[in-house]
Amino acid sequence: MSRPLRADAQRNRAQVLQVAARTFAEEGLSVPVHEIARRAGVGTGTVSRHFPTKESLFAAVLLDRMEQLVRTAGELADDGEPGEAFFAFFALMVEEGSANKGIVDALAGAGFDFQAVADDDSHDVMGAWEKLLRCAQDAGAVRADADISDVKALLTGCLDRERQAPDPDARARMLAIVGEGLRT
Amino acid sequence: MSRPLRADAQRNRAQVLQVAARTFAEEGLSVPVHEIARRAGVGTGTVSRHFPTKESLFAAVLLDRMEQLVRTAGELADDGEPGEAFFAFFALMVEEGSANKGIVDALAGAGFDFQAVADDDSHDVMGAWEKLLRCAQDAGAVRADADISDVKALLTGCLDRERQAPDPDARARMLAIVGEGLRT
DNA sequence: GAATATACGGGACGGCCGTCCCGGTTGTCC
DNA sequence: GGACAACCGGGACGGCCGTCCCGTATATTC
Question: pTM score, two decimals?
């Protein structure tokens, strides 16, 4: 282990992370790193010291969000009916994607290895999600042959619909369609 | 109008188009134009003279394929039950996407304006597809509130599933799920 | 408050890629 | 078969972007 970061370095790191989170969410992964540095009011060197590559910066941002989502998934799994929990989390992910272009890009596989980030030991989103699915299937609420990749693909579809034309009606309709398809 | 192309120019154009079609289908839109020129055995200048931009090259490739797909859609619409025709065409598109990474990229909106190309007057894929949808809805085979954007999004989802791990079982499952969701 | 390590800024670098241009070549037409 | 226009090849150019480096500034420690 190394000694703790200097105070200003900590501030800068946090600042970069926050700006990056907002920027990636609003504009997707195509934003240049220079731009994030500029908006954070630091030099590009500062960014690249804390996060050697763009991918590592995005991974750090994503991991933050992931933690919350996994926690939510856990809570949903704990209380209430398994089927409801599964579909509620699915809807939550759609909402998240709608507000977070970065996640959509990652899910769409636009250059980043989402799988690798999602599979990180301490932030096992896919695992948590899969558990929700399995519970719902055991409870007979979701067709037994569906796997987590199917679910992820359906999520991608819902997010694509959002991207074409964000519209509350359309979102509800897509959730209904997917729901009908997935239920036993 | 200009005079007809010189014989060698026609040959080169056709050659580039053919190589581009195969290459885009196999590797997606990220292939450099230089690489297509190299494989076609021509200089980059030759490519860029016939197709001023990469987008125009891809559009030309896509339009070829589109024509066939639209024709197929028309045939499906003409004979047989409307619901069957709609779902058959959907399955056909999934198959097409599975064999054609370029189309997947275009559908996923990876930098190219698929809509613009698809809406070309003489190759109105979306229109043809929408007609299939409307017929199926009129016949009561597909839920009435779904629109063509929903269908396109669901297709994107199916194609995403293919990309994660191509698998005949998974494809059939996805089609079943989407079918269940879309039927009345 | 001085000494030292640590971090900052932002310019430089290199790779990638699409586009353009020019000297040479090859069809075409009389 | 000769002259001219059309076309070819591929190198040059410019923009973009991620990464690295170094002279400078600042926090930390004693």
Answer: 0.90
